[in-house]
């Protein structure tokens, strides 16, 4: 694999302001719909609720490579998400990750 072409991932933990959970989830759903149809280099982009912590959301994002992540960050729908989320959040924690080993997803597993 060429240098810089390794998969690139991040995990983001959001603490949503009390009462803003639905607004944040709606914003996320609208954004993910556009990511799904407009970003072929974004391989996985998921948002999870944390059991027992109703204001916590964890995003897992996997990109083909760092260039795909950089392209993701420049999309108008992502810039809109980044701007709108600010008033809905109390805290953000981000971990950027570079894959060492892993089992790749295949389309037959999703069926």
UniProtKB/TrEMBL annotation:
Top-level taxon: Bacteria
Name of the protein this chain belongs to: ABM domain-containing protein
Organism listed in the record: Planobispora rosea
GO molecular-function term, one example from the UniProt record: catalytic activity
Domain called ABM: residue spans: 8-97
UniProt-listed PANTHER family: ABM DOMAIN-CONTAINING PROTEIN, QUINOL MONOOXYGENASE YGIN-RELATED
